[in-house]
Amino acid sequence: MQLKAQYHAFTTILIKEFMRFIRIWVQTVLPAGITMALYFIIFGNLIGSQLADVHGQRYIDYIVPGIILMAVINNSYANVVSSFFSAKFQRHVEEMLVSPMPNYLILSGFVAGGVARGLVVGAVVTVVASFFVDLHFYSFGLTVLVLLMTAILFALAGFINAVYAKTFDDISIIPTFVLTPLTYLGGVFYSIDMLPRFWQSLSLGNPILYMVNAMRYGMLGVADINVFTAISIILSFVVGLFLFALWLLNRGIGVRS
Amino acid sequence: MSLALSISELRKTYKSGVEALRGVQLEVKEGDFFALLGPNGAGKSTTIGIICSLVNKTSGKVTVFGHDIDLELEAAKTCIGLVPQEFNFNQFEPVFEIVVNQAGYYGIDRATASVRAEKYLKQLGLWDKRREMARELSGGMKRRLMIARALVHEPRLLILDEPTAGVDIEIRRSMWKFLREINEQGTTIILTTHYLEEAENLCKHIAIIDNGLTIESTEMRDLLRRLQQETFVFNSREAVSGMPSIAEYAVRKIDAQTFEVDVDKRQSLNELFSAFSAQGIHIDSMRNKSNRLEELFVRLTEEGKINAA
């Protein structure tokens, strides 16, 4: 497939995926805006106003980067896992499998769809946040880089989940029992400096901690983790998951008999 | 004439241990209208799945217009349009989008894809439904949608896996007309069907797969020529009281006005009509008891079972 043809194939999947979640925006975009607004009201305003500053930041300012990132994580993951599993379930993934599109393009298209939803929801949550705090960016470039890499990482994770999923239950198990606990324990609402040493060490095994801290550094200039370490770890996960997902697709696992 | 499809020694054993294909051999010439027949579970859909890379083969060689699917898969895929047996489009997507997106997967830009989608949806009588969600279409419309989708990248080889299953006769006939037209325009067509009348009417060549093996692959007329005996059903104008006695013909009386007669290839229908007239029986109408290809198909697959046993 020539480069121009690959471009048309890639944009076809991206537009299709974008239109899919925009068509049902009440289910895909709006809930995150409402949930995160509640976080800002309850944890930020009501409880946060009673708490001391963290790393020299007001508590509500401190949690904003993590909350935005949490929305990006959940939505980039949810978009790909539901879309690819649905394509498998209804068998319209075959439309792509019979075409001359290389597998990396199919994977990239779905991931781009997940990133698009993650970033759209991230933007909505950022607008919601602007009603509660004065947004400022210590490094706008770093913030965008972390958002993008995190969205790619969780879109890839969602894809892998969908490849292995055989029932609709299988696509909700990982978000419920793995993703949500890791996100809440990833330092969205606290600094790991507040934890006893054992739990601090354990927290370092949570990849979401690195993303939240890199994001927080991008927005506020403070973090529990060295930002280069954080970026390196996120990048390693992105490369590792991409290669694994591509291997699954090349082997036809879950999609070819 | 070059080959559109060549399959040699194709084998597939599923993880469950089921040996679906045991060495299928097939050659389809460019421009042909080819029937691929076989009983349920014979291996037709597995063969099609391998050609279209939806199923991984265990061994064997498949080439599409000279492109080996192991070496030039993308080139081979570009030549193929598939209409699968089961509906496999997004039920929650508008008809027009399904066709345009399929063109996109083949690297066709959106403007060209839209023009082609309009052309094929109009030809298949679906243009008025272009904005409707696929799930709102009737069964016949869904089948036609899959044909439009398979044609949008203008493949040289169109594979139809039971395209008229569950479709009423009027739509079936309009689909036959459409398929004949695109075949005349140069598209090679491979058709699997359980309506043997359909295969006999449309196809020039035929292969029969049974139990994972090709048990026959020949020209349709050669195969039909092999039919030694046909059974005809005759309807008389008036009720006949006794059993007509017609020498050399095996006549069975079904009811007072209906007779079944086995006619050997060497026997003459003219003589049979004369014999009926001589008995004072006036024949109003006659028909084949079953489709000729059906009789051959049943015989060949039965022979296959006996040989396997």
Tell me what the structure shows.
The complex is a heterodimer of chains A (257) and B (309). By secondary structure, chain A is an all-alpha fold. Chain A is 75% helix and 0% strand. Chain A has helices at residues 3-23, 25-28, 30-47, 59-89, 93-97, 103-130, 140-164, 170-184, 197-203, 207-220, 227-251. The two termini of chain A are 25 Å apart. The mean pLDDT of chain A is 91. In chain B, a hairpin with a 2-residue loop joins strand 4 (59-64) and strand 5 (67-68). Chain B has 10 helices and 14 strands. The model of chain B has no long low-confidence stretch (mean pLDDT 88). In chain B, strands 6-7-8-3-9-10 form a 6-stranded mixed β-sheet, with helices on both faces. Chain B is an alpha/beta fold. Chain B has helices spanning 44-51, 73-79, 95-105, 110-123, 139-151, 169-184, 196-202, 220-225, 269-278, 292-308, and strands spanning 3-13, 19-29, 33-37, 59-64, 67-68, 80-83, 157-161, 188-192, 205-210, 213-219, 229-236, 250-255, 258-264, 283-288. Helices cover 35% and strands 29% of the residues of chain B. Chain A binds chain B through residues 1-2, 4-6, 8-9, 11-13, 16, 19, 86-87, 90-92, 94-102, 252, 256-257, and chain B through 14, 49, 52-56, 73-75, 77-78, 80, 82, 84, 86, 88-91, 93, 97, 101-102, 104-110, 149, 153.
